[in-house]
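Researcher: Quick test of sequence recovery. Tokens follow.
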């Protein structure tokens, strides 16, 4: 018999699940039917939490319970990409005065609570008052050769880097669907364990989607869209058109998580809900 480490075909790129992933990740699969009980147990320990509606890239296959939250994008006057961060405000929640990040955008209530899962609620960048500039920055060791060859870790993502987005391809799936990059957001000078990973895609399909949709018109810019790149199953980091083995599960033209083979469609943005854990508060 093959060794346990070899139980999954190499073609899938799938890795063995490492036992011991616990805590907030385990709650990823909890349905909203039990939200009231979870909210009452967790809300007093921090800001926010409870049933949260969000817009995200749709999960179309695999064990992930829902899509990954979308990050609204804007291109500044110099061509650099930024993730829109909600306005901060102070409210009284369950008798405690807390600072929240929330705003109206494209007819939708956009909140920092969209990103309070998979332990992200403990990351420095989701603090509404974190001293961050909101620019998207490239990460090292990308799945994309173009990114590894042409830009450096920490560089701000720029629109000019995607000039070939209408024809770009890397031998995985179809060419011309869009050009991707991997990066980080609101994570300057924080430990690697607290980095917010993002997936950026520039595509003509995003441009088309935004034409007659109030939310997408406000949350995408010049064909760019982005999402928090944490799989909602067990918090792995998936990739759009980044792994040839994704074809075995029909994920070669979508965002594919090799850990447990969840697939997400970046060109299907839907509204969903989940039980957000409260952002921890310092004493």
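Model:
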């Amino acid at each position: 018999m093959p060794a346990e480490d070899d139980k999954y075909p190499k073609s899938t790129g799938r890795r063995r699940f490492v036992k011991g992933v616990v805590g907030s990740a385990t709650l990823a699969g909890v349905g909203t039917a039990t939200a009231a009980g979870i909210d009452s147990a967790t809300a007093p320990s921090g800001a926010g939490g409870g049933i949260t509606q969000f817009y995200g890239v749709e999960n179309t296959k695999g064990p992930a319970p829902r899509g990954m939250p979308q990050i609204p994008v804007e291109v500044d006057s110099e061509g650099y990409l930024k993730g829109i961060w909600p306005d901060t405000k102070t409210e009284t929640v369950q008798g405690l005065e807390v600072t929240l990040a929330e705003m109206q955008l494209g007819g939708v209530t956009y909140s920092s609570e969209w990103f309070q899962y998979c332990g992200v609620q403990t990351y420095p960048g989701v603090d509404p008052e974190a001293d961050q500039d909101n620019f998207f920055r490239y990460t090292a060791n990308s799945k994309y050769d173009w990114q590894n060859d042409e830009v450096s870790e920490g560089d701000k993502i720029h629109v000019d880097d995607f000039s070939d987005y209408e024809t770009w391809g890397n031998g995985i799936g179809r060419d011309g669907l869009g050009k991707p990059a991997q990066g980080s957001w609101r994570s300057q000078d924080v430990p690697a364990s607290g980095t917010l990973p993002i997936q950026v895609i520039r595509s003509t399909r995003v441009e088309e989607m935004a034409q007659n949709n109030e939310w997408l018109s406000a949350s995408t810019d010049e064909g760019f869209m982005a999402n928090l790149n944490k799989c909602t199953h067990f918090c792995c980091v998936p990739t759009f058109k980044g792994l040839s083995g994704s074809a075995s599960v029909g994920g070669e033209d979508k965002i594919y998580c090799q850990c447990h083979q969840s697939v997400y469609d970046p060109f299907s943005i839907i509204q969903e809900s989940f039980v957000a854990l409260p952002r921890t508060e310092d004493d």
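DSSP finds four helices and 16 strands in the chain.
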